[in-house]
Design goal:
The chain is mainly β. It has one domain: Galactose-binding domain-like (Jelly Rolls). The chain is built from no helices and 13 strands. The strands form two sheets. Strands 1, 2, 4, 5, 7, 10, 11 and 13 form an eight-stranded antiparallel β-sheet that branches. Strands 3-6-12-8-9 form a five-stranded antiparallel β-sheet, with no helix packed on it. Strand 1 and strand 2 form a beta hairpin. The protein starts with 14 loop residues before the first strand and ends with a strand.
Length: about 170
C-alpha cells in the first residue's frame, strides 16, 4: 500500500539565493496538511489554502552570515471570498539558530480580500545573527502561523517568502 504523507515537506531546491537575499517558493516551505487536497493546493508558483483550522507554514534558510540582520516577510494573495480572518491575527515568526528565541509580528488579513499583500506590513520582522553563533547553527527558522483561534480559515495564496539581508 502506497501511503502519502499528509504534510508537505520543503524542497531545498525551491530556495533561490541572490547575494545575501533569499526567495523561498511555496514548494520550499513545510506546510502542515499541505499534501491533503481538502486543505491545500501546492504548486511551484503558489500554495493555495483551501481551508484549515491550524495554519502552520515554516521554512529554514541555512548558513546565514554571522553578525548580520535579516528581514523576513511573506507575499500573499488574499482571494475574494477569503474567510475566517476576521478578528484573527496571523503571526510571522523567526529565530536565529535552533536554540534562538522567536521574534514575531502580528498581521491582519481581514479587509485585504482581492489584494496582494506583504506581511508583516506595518513594521518589519528583523532577526539578528550574533557573531558568536556556531557555523552549524547559523540557520534562520521562520514561519507563518495561526493555530490559536480554532477557527476555519481559507482563501489565501502564498506566493513566496523573502529573507533579505538588511545590515
Amino acid at each position: 500500500m502506497n501511503f502519502k504523507k499528509p504534510h508537505h515537506t520543503a524542497d531545498q531546491n525551491a530556495i533561490e539565493k541572490d547575494a545575501d537575499n533569499y526567495t523561498i517558493k511555496p514548494t520550499g516551505l513545510n506546510i502542515v496538511w499541505g499534501n491533503d487536497p481538502r486543505y491545500w493546493k501546492v504548486t511551484k508558483s503558489e500554495a493555495e489554502l483551501i481551508q484549515v483550522s491550524w495554519l502552520e507554514v515554516s521554512g529554514v534558510v541555512k548558513a546565514l552570515k554571522k553578525g548580520k540582520k535579516y528581514k523576513v516577510e511573506f507575499e500573499l494573495n488574499v482571494k475574494p471570498g477569503a474567510f475566517g480572518w476576521d478578528e484573527t491575527q496571523v503571526l510571522v515568526m523567526a529565530k536565529a539558530g535552533k536554540s534562538g528565541r522567536y521574534s514575531f509580528k502580528e498581521a491582519k488579513l481581514s479587509g485585504s480580500e482581492g489584494r496582494h499583500v506583504t506581511i508583516p506590513s506595518s513594521e518589519p520582522l528583523e532577526v539578528s545573527f550574533p557573531a558568536a553563533i556556531s557555523d552549524s547553527d547559523a540557520n534562520l527558522y521562520f514561519g507563518l502561523y495561526e493555530v490559536w483561534s480554532g477557527k476555519w480559515k481559507g482563501g489565501i495564496e502564498i506566493i513566496k517568502a523573502n529573507v533579505t539581508c538588511i545590515d
